[in-house]
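Render this sequence as a predicted structure.
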Amino acid sequence: MFKFLKEVVAGSGSALKDFPYTIGEPYASAWGSWTHHRGTSKDDGSPVSIFSLSGSNPQDRHLVAGRNGVKRLRTVRHPNILSFLHSTEAEVPDGPAMKQTIYIVTEPVTPLSEKLKELNLGGTQRDEYFAWGLHQISKAVSFLNNDCKLVHGNVCLASVVVTQTLDWKLHAFDVLSEFDANNETSNSPMLQFEWLVGTQYKSMELAKSDWVSIRKSPPWAIDSWGLGCLIYELFCGAKLTRTEDLRNTASIPKSLLPDYQRLLSSTPSRRLNPSKLIDNSEFFQNKLVETIQFMEVLNLKDSVEKDSFFRKLPNIAEQLPREIVLKKLLPVLASALEFGSAAAPALVVLLKMGSWLPADQFSAKVLPTIVKLFASNDRAIRVSLLQHIDQFGESLADQTVDEQVFPHVATGFSDTSAFLRELTLKSMLVLAPKLSQRTISGSLLKYLSKLQVDEEPAIRTNTTILLGNIANHMNDGTRKRVLINAFTVRALRDTFPPARAAGIMALSVTSSYYEMTEIATRILPNIVVLTFDPDSDVRTKAFQATDQFLQIAKQHHEKLNMGDNSTAEGTGIQLRPGNAGLLGWAMSSLTQKGKSSDHGLVSSANASNSQVSASSRVTSDNQSATIAYAPSTSSSLDQTAPASARSSVDGWGEIENDNINEENGSDKEGWDDVDPFDEKPPPSLLSNIQAAQKRPVVQPKQPASSRSNPPKAPKPEEDPLWGAIAAPAPKSASKSADIKPSTSQNDDDDDLWGSIAAPPPKSAGKPLKPAASNSDDLWGAIAAPPPSTKARPLASSGRGRGTKPAQPKLGAQRIGRTSSTGM
């Protein structure tokens, strides 16, 4: 019981009091007397490495050397030296006794020997990775020897660890000391703790304790020997046991052998400087080293070098070790893209490398960078993201798309570049299923409404295709308000034949969303017209769609005959298998038709052909489409329309009501006879018309001002059946001059429809008396009265040409001011 309480107060080996890290399982190997543990931070759970060293008392010589290592590691900073995070020293119980223990917390690393077993590389890939690791350790040793004038004293396989990104880092600084060649009596730590270095790793002068020779040697002499030991252990795959084994060079690569021999020279002054080892050896000149070095100095490269490098990188990445690419190159590339130092082609490489990751790691390592790139102002980056959105779009979370991705992507809908508008449109095929209904109805459909009248015909076509593909992601109210208007009012009346074909296909694919009333009154009439379209493909699709909707109508008719009223107003059966065919056509439409710049020419050519073959219909369609976009101001159906349709501002809600008004009140489209909303004339009106035809013509009472005019005889060629809708005959100019104009319409005397026609307007003004000079003017009766002001005639000696006063004329007149004396 006492032991348990003591462990709680003082802490045990797995949990120290006030220690902000949790100590985990130890690794199998570590340098010297240290123990290397896995660990995690108690604050955020991030991984760390924890090194521990225990001694029986605070003056234990291992602890004294360990304190020197903590001090050196804390003060020396280099990219290839292990990063220090935290350290502490505490008493830890070990059975009945207490031990003094030093803890060092560093970045998460793995012993090199264990990492090499895990990677299990071989052949060229192994040599390339060893070259990169030795390159890093040589830079660290060169930094200590040449820049800091320090001697590590024990460079070997055990003193190297590997980070999570597979970088090699140097540690084990217990023997680290200053190199002072001038002070022969110096009692430096190197002299105190040289016993920590294994005999097999000691150079000849250090093994003999020849300090005079050591002080006369260059500062890198001892560590160059250590680098030679490290190279031997790497390529032999075993720990060095005897110094004599260094003479066995069978496993050393030939390109590295000369430098290896110079590192292990028996004369300390002739040993190779670690800085020259990097520059001189051909062994370090390989694809992996060159690729990583280029990416480390990416900010210093110009755009031409970057483009050339990233275009070659996909092929190079295929040849490099997969583990190194994913753990080393991928993080560096993601960071370069995030901070703007990498060009747009780097995104293609990032996605290719990311495709080699499992789904969970792809979401953790690649997606955060991609989401940040959507906010980039670089148009090339945005284009590359949209072009490859199918590679990562499915991995994006719905909330991320709705809140972080779509607001930035939506700016492309109004971009000046047609190519970017088109890519933005196609990206919605992947992003729309992840958007909320609020975003779809309130934002996306507004942009699509504008794109349906885009100047590029290919964009208009793909907008229709997109609406058909995302219809299942809309709610019922939105579908009812948008689909029919978008497909019939705009798509089917487009001057670009593929756009009309797309409208037909979209209606066919979404047939299950329409009621029978809508099919009969709004869809079929618009499709049947296209069966004589100038374009063959449009005609073919129109016939197919007509057959499909007629089949739906027949099924509806059979249900009604069977008395199944519950499903009488149900939607039709979708005969096409899903949206697969429609989707494929949408993605290939632009490539089949050419570049976006060529579509305008195709569109104009097709439009001109349509005008030649069916000019009246095309003109009528264009006028109707123009009218349909304006909001309705007086519609008899506004009260029955849904509230969503009346309050919508997305560009289609207004079209719905206008389309109905257009079909009801305008004969330009020719839909009056099939419009279900058009009221039938009452039977009594027909009987009145027939009775009026049989009645003899009775001359109506003429006004006093027009009694002198003889009645106009009806023309024998006029057909009384068409008098009501025929255009009025033009007034002939061959009338006799003695016929006086009148305000009454004498043409109505012979009209057989006079009994049901509207009465003529009553004129309150008196008939004008035309002047004698204008007695032949046929329009004098309806001309405006002369001005009431009395103007005095101009004097003959003035600007006029005679004494006769000028005839009063209507409107402003130009007065000639030419002097009579000058002529």
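Summary. The mean pLDDT is 74. Residues 596-628 form the longest helix (33 residues).
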